[in-house]
Amino acid sequence: MPSRFKPGFNLDSGSQIPHLRICPSLKANIPYAHNVPFPPPQSSSAHAESANHFVKAFNDAMQVIAEREYVGVIWPLWEMWGDKSRKPMEVVSRFLDPIIRAAIEKRRVAERLVGEKGVGKGEVEAETLLDELLNSTSDPKILKDETLNILLAGRDTTMHILTMVVYFLSMYPDVCARLREEVLTHVGPTARPTYEGIKDMKYLRAVINETLRLYPSVPFNVKECINTTTWPSPDPNDERPIYIPGGAKVPWASILMHRRKDLWGPDAEEFSPDRFLDERVKKYLLPNPFQFLPFNAGPRICLGQQFAYNEMSFMLIRLLQSFESFSIDEDAFMPDARPPKEWASAPGRKGIDKFRPRFHLTMYTSDGMWIKAKEATY
C-alpha cells in the first residue's frame, strides 16, 4: 500500500484491505488516477477481466434495484421490453457460480479426508465467509444469495464509510493527529488491535460516528406499512394523529435527518467528532436516540452493526499505524467527479466538500477518493 500512495490511491476500491479478501471483486484490477503519466501495466488475465466485468455488473444491478424503488408501482412500464436486471445478473452469475461450485466441491473433499482421519465434520476449518456458510448449507442458491447479500450489505457500506473517514482525516489534519495519538497510546505503532482495546478508544468511535452522521452508507430508506395505523402528530399545536393506510410506503432520508439544526444544533453541518463526546450528547442525542440512524434502529437494527464498527476500527488503526497524515489529491479526480464550480458558494457541506457524492442503494463517490499519505516515522 505505501508504494501506491505516491501516485495516489483510490481508497474506495477497497482492493488492498485485508479483511475483504473473501470478496470476488478484489480480483479486479486496481485503478490508477487518470493523471498518472505511466501507471504500471494492469493484469490482462482472463480471471482479472472477468472480475472487472463482475464489479461493473454488480453495480449496474444495484442501480436497477434503486431505480425500481424510486419509480414505484409503475415500474412494469419501465420493463415492457425486458427485465432490466437480467443482463447484469447474468454477468454476476457467470463469475460467481463457478466459485460457489468450487467451494462446495472443496468442502466435500475436505470432509471426506477429515472423515477418513476419524475427526468430526465440524472440524473442517473455515477460511472465508463462503467456507463458514458451507458449515450450514451446501445449497448453491442459498450460498449465492448470501454471498451477494454480504457483498452489498457488508462490502459497499463499510468501504464507503472507510473512504469517508480518510477523506475527513485529509480535510481536518487536527482530527487526524488526535486520532493517531489515540491509536499509538492504546495500541502502539505495530501491535494488533484487540476487541477490548477498541472499546477503550472513544475518539475513534466518535470519528466513525460523525462520519456516519454526515455521510451515512444508506442515505435513504423506506418501510411499508402492513396494516392501517396512525402516527402521533409531530405538531405540538395539533394533536390529531396522522393516518397511514395499509400498504403505504414511508420513505425517510437519514442524510437529511442527520444534518437538521433543530436536532443536532447550529453546527449540524460541521464535521465535529467531539459532538459524540461532549455536552452535545446530552443536549441533542440522548433525548432522542432515533435521530441517529446509520444502522437503522429498534427491532430492525442492522445485525452487522458491531461487526462493522470493529471492522472499520481495525482497518483505521492499522492505517494510522502506517501513515501519519493524508491529503486530498484534487487533480487526480476525473472532471465529472469534482463538485461543480457553482457549489463553492453554496451553504453547508455542499460548499465545503471536494468530491461529488452519488448513491444507488448505498452512497459512493463516482471516482473513488484519491488521496496522498505521509508514511509514519513514529
Keywords:
378 residues, mainly alpha, Cytochrome p450, 3-stranded antiparallel sheet, 12 helices, 9 strands, 43% helix
Brief rundown of the structure:
By secondary structure, this protein is mainly alpha-helical.
List the helices and strands and how they pair.
Elements: E1 9-10, H1 46-71, H2 75-78, H3 86-116, H4 129-133, H5 140-171, H6 173-186, H7 195-199, H8 202-214, E2 220-224, E3 229-231, E4 242-244, E5 249-253, H9 254-257, H10 261-264, H11 279-285, H12 305-322, E6 323-328, E7 357-359, E8 363-365, E9 370-375
Antiparallel strand pairs: 1-9, 2-5, 3-4, 6-9, 7-8
Helix pairs in contact: 1-3, 5-6, 5-8, 5-12
What can you see in these coordinates?
Keywords: Heme, Iron, Metal-binding, Monooxygenase, Oxidoreductase. Belongs to the cytochrome P450 family. This is Cytochrome P450. InterPro entries: Cyt_P450 (IPR001128), Cyt_P450_CS (IPR017972), Cyt_P450_E_CYP52_fungi (IPR047146), Cyt_P450_E_grp-I (IPR002401), Cyt_P450_sf (IPR036396). The structure is a single chain. The chain is mainly α and 378 residues long. The protein has a single domain, classed as Cytochrome P450 (Cytochrome p450, Orthogonal Bundle). The chain has twelve helices and nine strands. A hairpin with a 3-residue loop joins strand 7 and strand 8. The two termini are 18 Å apart.
